[in-house]
Amino acid sequence: MKYLNFLLLAVPLAIYMEIVHANEAAIFLVTLLAIVPLAAVLGKATEELAVHTGPRVGGLINATLGNAAELIITILALREGLLTVVKASLAGSILGNILLVLGLSAFIGGLKYKKLCFSENVANLNTSLLLMIVTALSVPAIFSFSGHISADHLQTLSLWTAVGLVLIYITSMIFSFKTHRHLFHIEHVAHESEWSMGKSLGIMILSVVAIVAMSEILVTSLRPATKILGLSEVFVGLILVPIVGNAAEHSAAVLMSLKNKMNIALEIAVGSSVQIALFVAPVLVFLGYFFGHPMNLLFSPLEILSIILAIVVVNNMVRDNETDYLEGLILFTTYLLISIGFFLL
């Protein structure tokens, strides 16, 4: 994380540029850079706080705040009615974590170790959840594309889908952190905290506030910036926002693979995608009513097909409980091709 600290200079720079009404594209790009180290600081503070609170509460804190930066960005985008960006960000997070993050982890770690192994229990749980996710997210699309469901009924179906996703999320948390905890997190070793509990909590709160401020500027400058840069809102939501919001997690997963701790890398990559679909997406559906911008879970055919393709490739990779650099390259290349396709839309 220390290598990202110099990017914190982008925080006051973004604020200054916003005050003086600088070029919207420049503000947008600087704000994107500013969120990267803030997300890393938040992740560090969360980990330190988890040491003080114990493994169970700490696991819950990590799981809840793991995608805090992206959740904040999408909430503010939803408030502004940028539904295309919000949905693309959800799809992009799922794709980015299971293809880009897991792919880079397997590729870079595989260059050092001939085989990277992970727990059968971890792999089975994550693949089961991924299959459930793609099924749930496909349901609104299936009924919508049939042409026999009204917009109001589609919204109702999305609401019930969100309820079902939250139910699965809560149950999976109980399953992995309590009733079947002995089957998971086998590589997590307790370590002494570098920060006091007060410092950890204070920095966590400050980083959240800073991320909210940067996200506010980001969302405000998004539409004019995309026009200036010649980018579509779908590409920004699908590629740029997820990469920035999860940059710290990306590097953490790669570092774990270099230590031959592929269980942790798999939990970071796939677990983050699972959390986006089971927790973040339903929260946004519920908040849409509060903001006066009801959001359904109808993704575009390209987004749905990309998610299905990604999950099929990942499930095929993890089924034998081991991976290598070739499989990592396959995942990364798949992500690259999908990204190029959305860029060219």
Number of helical runs? 13
Provide the succession of SSEs: HHHHHEHHHHHHHEH
The assigned CATH architecture is Up-down Bundle
Helix content: over 70%
Rounded radius of gyration (Å): 19 Å
Summing up helix and strand content along with how strands pair, one would put the structural category as: mainly alpha
Give the C-level CATH assignment: Mainly Alpha
Indicate how many domains the architecture comprises: 1
Cα(first) to Cα(last) distance is 35 Å
Per DSSP E runs of 2 or more residues, the count of β-strands stands at 2
Strand percentage, roughly?
Answer: under 5%
Going by CATH, what is the homologous superfamily? Answer: NCX, central ion-binding region
Strand order of the largest sheet: 1-2
CATH topology call:
A middle domain of Talin 1
| Poorly predicted spans | none
Mean pLDDT: 85
Gross morphology is globular
* Biggest sheet details: 2 strands, antiparallel
Q: Keywords for this structure?
A:
single chain, 345 residues, mainly alpha, A middle domain of Talin 1, two-stranded antiparallel ribbon, 79% helix
Explain this structure.
The structure is a single chain. With 345 residues, this protein is an all-alpha fold. The chain has one domain: A middle domain of Talin 1 (Up-down Bundle). It has helices spanning 10-19, 24-53, 55-65, 68-79, 83-112, 120-145, 151-179, 197-229, 233-245, 247-258, 262-291, 301-318, 325-343, and strands at 116-117, 322-323. α12 (301-318) packs antiparallel against α13. The chain is globular.
What is this entry, summarized?
The chain is mainly α. It contains 13 helices and 2 strands, in the order αααααβαααααααβα.
